[in-house]
Structure formats: structure tokens, C-alpha cells
Specification:
The chain is mainly alpha-helical. The protein is 64% helix and 0% strand. The model has no long low-confidence stretch (mean pLDDT 84).
Length: 137
């Protein structure tokens, strides 16, 4: 598992030359190394309550690391922004179908889409442009 984690980060086998004579991965700089979290490999057996205390300790250490490096707040902000976008997209979609004539326009133009005279993208552009102009179509 530790070797696999090293491969994921590009550290495993860095001292071994490539079989085709190419360059190996460059050594990470000490400053970037200090900002990387290296997850420890722990043995646990939950049914026997083995290793649980060590796992909890490492979780707390990781939490402290995230807080100290500013990554905790960064991750929280990213999750909050993503959630806000999801909620906004859902609310916009609900408003679009409930409060505008978009559904009627789709139905009215369906034969044009099927015939290939209008693409769904063209129709979407038409609806969005109408909304930008302040009409509910």
C-alpha cells in the first residue's frame, strides 16, 4: 500500500532509471513536500476494535494539518460554492419550466428539431436570448 501511495504521488522508483533511458521524475522541492499530506498506512480490524485509537489519532492529526495549512477552509469553501451552484441551477431550472413558455416553445419547435432544421442548441439559444431580453417568451 505504501508503494502504491508513492506511485500515486510519483515518488516510488524515482531512483530507478526508466527502461528506455529517459528521465525519472524530478525530486520534489522541500517546500512543496511540507505542504503534502502523506496518509499513513494503518492496520485496523473494526470487529476486534484493533487499531481504532491509532486511526482516530491520525484523523485528528490530518484535521490539524488541514487547519494549519488553510486547506480545511479552502475545501469547505469549494464544497459550499459547489452546493450553492447546484441549488441555483435547480431553482433556475424549476423557474424556467414553471414560469416561462419554454415548454411550449420546445413542443412547438419539436418537428423542426426532429427534421434537423433547428438543433436543440439553436432552440436553447433562442430561449435564453429571449430571457436575456426580459421576456418570458
Amino acid at each position: 500500500i505504501e508503494v502504491t501511495l508513492g506511485i500515486r504521488k510519483g515518488h516510488a522508483f524515482r531512483h530507478v532509471p526508466a527502461h528506455h533511458g529517459g528521465l525519472t521524475a524530478p525530486e520534489p522541492s522541500p517546500s512543496s513536500e511540507a505542504l503534502d499530506w502523506r496518509p499513513p498506512v494503518l492496520g485496523t480490524v473494526a470487529t476486534k476494535h484493533e487499531g481504532i485509537d491509532a486511526l482516530l489519532e491520525q484523523i485528528e492529526i490530518h484535521y490539524d494539518f488541514l487547519q494549519a495549512t488553510g486547506r480545511l477552509i479552502e475545501r469547505r469553501r469549494e464544497r459550499a460554492a459547489g452546493r450553492a451552484r447546484e441549488v441555483l441551477e435547480r431553482a433556475t431550472r424549476q423557474w424556467l419550466w414553471a414560469e416561462t413558455d419554454a415548454e411550449r416553445i420546445v413542443i412547438d419547435r419539436l418537428n423542426d428539431i426532429v427534421a434537423g432544421h433547428v438543433s436543440p442548441y439553436d432552440l436553447a439559444d433562442e430561449v435564453v436570448e429571449g430571457l436575456k431580453q426580459g421576456t418570458r417568451l
